[in-house]
Design a protein that fits this description.
The protein is an alpha+beta fold. It is about 35% helix and about 20% strand. The strands form two sheets. Strands 1-2-9-4-7-10 form a six-stranded mixed beta sheet, with helices on one face. A five-stranded antiparallel beta sheet has the order 3-8-5-6-11, covered by helices on one side. The radius of gyration is 19 Å and the shape is globular.
């Protein structure tokens, strides 16, 4: 069995197979922080999910996948209906990638993920060999994408950081944030530089980029995203997005089609 739903009880570590694949369609879901003894590849062909791991947040639109090494604590969050695929690998057959990696999903890699996600859990290992070898080769050659954001842990910011998970959340300008949490702009700037390596304005721009990708992946139009994230105009948002990614919003989401 590879196709599961929200009611299915599933533990990849309890299944004795070198490669475990699952396919699922879920709505709002929060996996909670957890880890696996197996390595994992996580991918959403429809919708968008975000993952939290090692003090960072990353987003996975339909053109990107996450490689999560064995033992790394992570949390997958889905705020809309998402088609997702997950592959789990025993260490004996897993790609030799020992760090978290967000990669571009090429058409070939997408086809391989789709095939492996529907493998029966008792599939003989001898029938996996060729596909697995091609998957590892394609994954190793995939372009890494830096769709992540470091999350500060200072107690003064925790409540506000949690509020950014709300569907209509906005990362405000620095002076507005200072008023919101009752700390000076200089104090907030020092916190962000110390804990994220980024000044707040750069952090805010990266947050807006990741959030815009989530919203676009949910089917929102460019003008709606521009309005929700408080850009002055649609063209200002498109210019910002192109400066950050090298493509327009629609070109970005269709880049692996």
């Amino acid at each position: 069995m590879a196709l599961i739903d929200e009611t299915t009880r599933f533990n990849a570590d309890s299944i004795n197979s070198p490669v475990i694949g699952i396919a699922a369609r879920v709505g709002k879901h929060d996996s909670g922080m957890h880890s696996h003894a197996k390595a994992q590849l996580l991918y959403a062909p429809q919708g968008c999910m975000s993952i939290k791991l090692q003090g960072r947040k990353s987003v996975l639109p339909p053109t990107r996948a996450a490689w999560i090494p064995a033992g790394v604590k992570h949390c997958a969050i889905m705020n809309n209906v998402v088609e997702y695929r997950s592959l789990y690998f025993d260490l004996a057959v897993a790609p030799q990638i020992d760090q978290i990696k967000i990669v571009e999903v090429t058409p070939l890699l997408q086809a391989l993920i789709e095939r492996m996600a529907f493998w029966e859990w008792d599939k003989p290992e001898s029938e996996m060999t060729n596909t697995l070898a091609l998957f590892i080769e394609e994954l190793n050659q995939s372009t890494e994408q830096l769709l992540s954001l470091p999350i500060p842990s200072d107690p003064r910011l925790l409540g506000w950081i949690d509020s950014l998970n709300q569907p209509t959340a906005i990362a405000p300008a620095l002076n507005q944030l200072a008023n919101k949490i009752g700390a000076s702009s200089k104090t907030i700037s020092r916190i962000f530089t110390r804990e994220t390596g980024m000044p707040y304005q750069s952090w805010r721009q990266q947050w807006r980029l990741l959030r815009s990708i989530e919203l676009l992946s949910q089917g929102l139009q460019v003008n709606d995203v521009a309005y929700q994230l408080e850009f002055s105009s649609d063209s200002a948002f498109i210019t910002f997005f192109k400066q950050q990614t090298g493509t327009t919003p629609l070109q970005y989401l269709n880049s692996s089609a």
